[in-house]
Write a structure and sequence with these properties.
The protein is an alpha+beta fold. A 9-stranded mixed sheet has the order 1-2-3-4-5-6-7-9-8, sandwiched between helices. The protein starts with a strand and ends with a strand. The radius of gyration is 16 Å and the shape is globular.
Length: 188
């Protein structure tokens, strides 16, 4: 497990054999973020990313980061271990009034850092940010039913099972997978 050595309002530092910094993505992170997402897309088939990776150019990623930075209900958090991206939590939301309170979560950690608490730390930071946004009142995500570790983490963090999407994901080998739909209400 990673051990807390310092904590600020929006920044946490942790140390094991690495120093962990969690912060919001900035435009200068675009190339590194693309490279990270392309790596994790090849490490696991638990995400919606496939072998082709994120399929975004650096300029497209810059625009994405800028849009999120100017939004009150969206964020991309990076978990940096010794200044290298090891995990990402993204919350996207709509700008339309009727649904702008709903944040969709995407969370991924590089495989060599699985089961060390990094996903939980990122998720906790995302939930705290959502609470402080003053806008988001619901977080939701989808997770493959076979990804028991992720389902356990989400449940532990207050997400509840809201439904099952049969054949919600597909593997290249011709296998359809069921996907769990989970949500968490945010109270002020």
């Amino acid at each position: 497990m990673l051990k807390v050595i310092e904590q600020n309002n929006s920044l946490r530092s942790f140390q094991m054999e690495y120093e962990l910094c969690i912060r919001e993505a900035e435009v200068q992170d675009a190339a590194d973020l693309i490279a990270f997402l392309n790596i994790v897309s090849k490490e696991t088939d638990f995400t919606s990313l496939d072998e082709e990776g994120i399929m975004m150019s650096e300029s497209e990623m810059v625009l994405f980061i800028e849009k999120q930075a100017s939004s009150e209900n969206q964020i991309t958090l990076l978990a940096l271990l010794n200044d290298t991206i090891a995990g990402v939590l993204n919350i996207t939301a709509d700008s339309r009034l009727r649904v702008r309170h709903i944040g969709d979560i995407f969370l991924v950690v590089q495989k060599k850092f699985w089961n060390q608490g990094l996903a939980g730390i990122l998720l906790e930071e995302g939930i705290e940010w959502a609470k402080s946004s003053g806008i988001l009142r619901r977080l939701q995500l989808s997770v493959q039913k076979r990804n028991e570790a992720a389902i356990h983490l989400y449940s532990k963090m207050g997400f509840t099972m809201e439904g099952l999407q049969e054949r919600g994901a597909y593997l290249e080998e011709g296998t359809f997978l069921d996907v769990c739909l989970m949500g968490k209400l945010i109270d002020e």
